[in-house]
Amino acid sequence: MTAATTNGAAPLPGRIDTLTDKENEGLKKTWLRLIEIFQQKGVAWTPPPKVEEVKETKKASRWGFGGGKKETNESKDVFLGTTANPEWLSLPLEKALPLIPGDSLSTTFWNMVAGDNPDAVVLRFLRARKWDLNAGYDMLMNCLRWRIVMRVDDITALGETGIRNELEVLKAGMGESFISNLHSNKSVLGGPDKDGRGISYINVRFHKKEDQDFEVIKLMTLYVMETSRMIVHQPVESSCIVFNLEGFTLANMDFEFVKFLLHCFEAYYPETLGSCLIHKAPWVFSTVWTMITPLLDPVVASKIHFTKNIDELSNYVDKEVLPPFLTGSEEIKKNTDKFPKPPAGSLNRDKTPEYQDYKDMVVEYLHETQTWAKADATTAKDEKRKQQALNYRHATIKAESYLRARTSYHDFGLADVEQGRLLLKFCGKVPTQDITDSV
């Protein structure tokens, strides 16, 4: 299922198959800048000695809007931001970039691309800055330095079980808190919507700010966002979020989480939010909404739709693929069951033939890209370029188990790699689709 086959919509501008010659030249120039910075030396950095954790944290005011005691160094994250020079993110971009080793920037770039078409990923940043090449490049660099400092690659590599184990070492009980939040039905991945996109259902009633550390919610958010990227395939580049507000009260409001999520979409995952549906918002939500709207980027705001009932929701998602807790055929409860744990991932990549083939393909892709970017030809349509992307995607899919830890969503049937083919299953809601060659 794709956007083209689902609703017959015309291909969108600024994408791989719809670039103008001028846009294609902009893409080439951006790639040459990327290749150059991936080769820089950077400045060596050694983590400081670990200090004993202090458990005191910020007190929240009513509704999770902040207030109370001001946050201090005593409430720092214990996992996020602990393995890289914090100045890489805190300094202005032009001062921070020369400090970061090029191989670190390259590694996180390719982990961000994952199995997608690399051109498509670069184009998202250029479109987000309306084809201002310098602004688009800076946005991409800002994203890469954020990924390094926030350990986004480690989150994907460790997987839910690996994260749980790491957190338990850092702070007793925090790993279990992460797992219980992940499987609590606060967030459920599914789909597709009518444009073929994956869906993240957020059941807001199960969230209360004070029930867990904010770092747990940030980790869970990043883990779910990165997990949902495993089903990306061209031309479906974006996803859908459904905020299910049935049963919502002001006790469920977490303003810090809202700000974090919005900032992620606007700054670090541009052009990946296809639609945001706010379902069954009660009257009391209007108070909250007046506080959220000033934070919304106009592009994000244009993708938000309110639905009151299943008939309205079915304008965006077919009824037969909606989860039973939305259709009313089954009541949803906060899950407390223990699921079988997927095996923990590792931060040390196995030197397997599949992983080495993937690394070799990255080198080959960059070499071919440099040759293509320096060529005089300006024609946007380039079938050889598409074949290079396909070769890269095949190598990434074959190395999937060495790049990404197995998740519960593999076991639930969202998607999986079988005999070297990436199969999109959407948990049996629609016929299985082989998306291996979708570049």
From TrEMBL:
Domain of life per record: Eukaryota
UniProt-listed PROSITE patterns = CRAL_TRIO
Membrane spanning stretches = none
Which Pfam families does this one have? CRAL_TRIO, CRAL_TRIO_N
Q: Where is the CRAL-TRIO domain?
A: 176-334
PANTHER family registered for this protein in UniProt: PHOSPHATIDYLINOSITOL TRANSFER PROTEIN CSR1, PHOSPHATIDYLINOSITOL TRANSFER PROTEIN CSR1-RELATED
User: Under which name does UniProt file this protein?
Assistant: CRAL-TRIO domain-containing protein
Which organism was this protein described from? Absidia repens
